[in-house]
Amino acid sequence: xxxxxxxxxxxxxxxxxxxxxxxxxxxxxxxxxxxxxxxxxxxxxxxxxxxxxxxxxxxxxxxxxxxxxxxxx
Length: 73
Description:
mainly alpha
C-alpha cells in the first residue's frame, strides 16, 4: 500500500486538528470501522473457503443467505 500526500494537504490536516481536535477521533473511528469490516469479510471468506474446500465470494454468500432453508425448522 502506497500513500501519497502533498505538503499543503498535511498543513490543512494539521490546521483542522488544531481548530477542531474532536475531528481527529472521528477520522480514526471511520478508519477503524473500515479496517475491521474488511478484516471480518476476509476472515469469513477464509473460513468458508477452508470449510467448503473452495473459494467463496460475497455474492455467493448473499445468494445462499437469501435462499429459504429446505430443512424442517
